[in-house]
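Discussion board: Methods & Data

I've been asked by a reviewer to show the raw model output for two of the constructs in my manuscript, not just the figures. I'm not sure how much to include, so I'm pasting the format here to get opinions. Each protein appears as its amino acid sequence followed by a line of discrete structure tokens. Is this the kind of thing reviewers expect to see in a supplement, or should I convert it first? Here is construct A:
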Amino acid sequence: MISFENQFKTRTPASFSMFERASRHLPGGVAGNGKFLAPYPIYVKQAQGGEFIDLDGNHYIDLLMGGGVHILGHSSEVVMSAVEAQLRVGTHYYMAAEAEVLLAEKVSQLMPHIEMVRFVNTGSEATQMALRAARAYSKRDRIAKFEGNFHGQHEAVLISTLGAEGPEGEPVSRIDSAGVPRLTRDNVLVLPYNDAERTVELISSHADELGAVILEPVSAFGLGVVAAQPEFLKAVREVTAKFEIPLIFDEVVTNFRLALGGASEYFGVTPDLVCLGKIIGGGFAIGGYGGKREIMDKVVTPKTGLWNLSEQIFQSGCFSGNPISMVAGLAVLNELEKGQVYPPINGIAEKLQSGITEIGQRLGFLILVNRAASFFQVHFGVEKITNKREQLKADKKTADLFHYGLRANGIMASTHPLFISSAHTEQHVDTILDVSERVLREMKA
């Protein structure tokens, strides 16, 4: 730890200076908690492809990739060209523009189960509005979410993501943040992820009060890239359909990363509503929610005359559907549609998964590298993770130390899902594996 700390602090004096300056006006020196990595954040100067440069001039291979945003790499030429052209004709109109129509058409083309879609500005907005639409449609207030699934920062979903309470088969709602009212907790039924039998029993027994069930097909930030088991996902779909409870897939992370058709194509299970984000904005702020026309048209489409408060939701936003995000997202989807991105990025992620696993096991670590398509996460101290209770048994201290060592040696990573882009190369793979072995050897010593 002392060695990694010395390495890190020696190479990042400008970031430390900026941190001291930033902390006077930004809590923690950052605009969001995810950017703070102890002992202080790395401040980025510029980024290109699969790498970035910090204020000290250090080069890093970036495995965070904007939190999973840049599937084509930083400053992709196709995205930059589209954005530069749009900048010349306007950055924000408030009024509707052709770009949002084109992106909506492309989303529906690639994900046919999203018959109608609305664009917002963040993933949190996407899950918030999808839940609102589902409750308006079902006319029931309570929602169900799964223990360990992360759905953003609004109050209704800051429940039972970071920790766990109650029996494993019947979790108790747990508030994850100060400032969340206790009444919010009481309005959320928490379900055990990847436990089909208990989930079906709990949904069935609370069906008359549930307005929505939301889940991550691959639980990223809360569990560490843990996929839903196929039989579990099918069971959730069947029981929600039986009781006419709208099922929401939170694909803010997985949309257009698992496959062009998202989790529905990847798993063969179709939800009623889908939450979108990250990749779909091409590196610019975005979120989206959509799904069945029956739901979206009934409760989201504005009707003429007086607003029907008993049926329709309110959702708007000054920057929703802004043309910069729309053209950037369209450029990314057009590139993904060519079919040349997924095989190599999935292959690189697989090589890193197998390589880090082999190194760790050879050096005597109990190591687990979970992967889905082109993103993965490194865990220590456990042989498997399928739910929150198993994830809580992992050795977070060793994982923190490993990722600290990577950052001290020019690999941008944290105890956070790690993402591969089409800008990452075989040379990057070799470097990452070489650094990983050096770090693990030092930890072992």
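Construct B, same format:
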Amino acid sequence: MTVDVAVIGGGISGLAAAHELKRRGHRVVVLERQIGTGGNAVSERCNGFLMEHGPSTMNALVPAANQTSHALGLEQTRCDLGDGIQKRYLIAKGRLAGISVGALGFLTAGYLSPLAKLRILAEFLIPHGCDGEDESVLEFCTRRFGREFAERVMDPMVAGIYGGGRASELSVAAIFPMLVALEQKYGSVTLGIMHRAREGGKMPGSRLFSWRNGIGTLADAFARDLGREIRTGVTVRRLSHTPNGFDIQLGESERLRAKAVVIATQAHVAAQLLADVDPEGAGAAEKIQSPPLAVVFLGYPRRNVDHPLDGLGFLTAESEGRNVLGAQFCSTMFPGRAPEGHVAVSAYVGGVRAPDLARLSAAELIDLARTEFRDLIGARGIPAVARVRHWPVGLPQYNRGHGARIKTLGESPQRNAGLYLTGNYFAGPSVAVCLSTAQKTAQSVHAFLSEQEVRASVSV
């Protein structure tokens, strides 16, 4: 069998790339090792509750998110973030501290000390840093905003976004490039934000949405669109060059030929697939860590939870010593996440901070989450529903040096014509960003195939 493009990996990134390539008229096949597609974009209905096993939101400020929702005919089931979100919550000395979601929330709340607030306000007086230095988030934010803000705000924030990542290890240039760019251009993040606001530019932020049946809706829609182009339960054993593209060994004996290949797997799998065809890329991919993560979903009668749950959830600074990285108040975020008279909450456990906790049994994780929720939101009694999802491979960590690793991987087509990579370790782990990255990858593949066709016609 010969195709134009073989997409290895049937997660959101692989499905999005295949969808775009099919739309452009190419013969595509998606090869997925698991029996289902969607990767970690899994939504499950259970007793009237909706559990998101993986990602739970889309960012409408990323154009690809809206474009894809329209293209797949999903707008009728789209739901925007609920209006019950009034505060952001962080843990302070074992209790939840509520902070206004407004721009001045941290300056008006009691979460930070008066000295820390003064230090934030003085950010525009801080000298410009050294260009080209790959600072950690902690280093950059300590230098610009002070140690307390870095440890008590940015550390829990990046842990929530990157599944337990540490601000002291994650590269600020890789995960918050806008902050670095503002300092480089204006000498100050604060002054940069003010300039951008006057110029009408969009600053980092999010307008979140989902669909009535969760993020899994997106994977299902892609699967319907691609139909027979998807092959599940197929293991790619080896990838090798041929004069006209690539030879792909499937299982023990089956082979597939493709003019181009898109590897849309997790980084460690990409490293294995690249070993024979691109050792340099393989070396870069295998350095990307993805520690285990567990999601614990609990549903309670509303009367059994004291907290108003008037936020997205809460985040935890590592210095607090809690067993959960953070939580989401699922039934507040979007409608239809819990039956009438009930609420739903999810706890996230593990990551770089505590990988062993992510490997606990389901029963142990449920007990752990119940204890945390009892202490922090006053959740009492036996949950109406309790589910656990173990992810042995969690979110990729954009540690220092990540930019150089991604540059190496992005140059794979220059070393191997027709070989491309995409995934959540390139530009960010959010679903919307993965869609955007995958579409750009597909456009590059399309340009390559079009050039090949022109060369073939000229030679004839």
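Answer (T.O., handling editor elsewhere):
This is acceptable in a supplement if you add a one-line summary per construct. For B, something like: The two ends are 24 Å apart (CA to CA).
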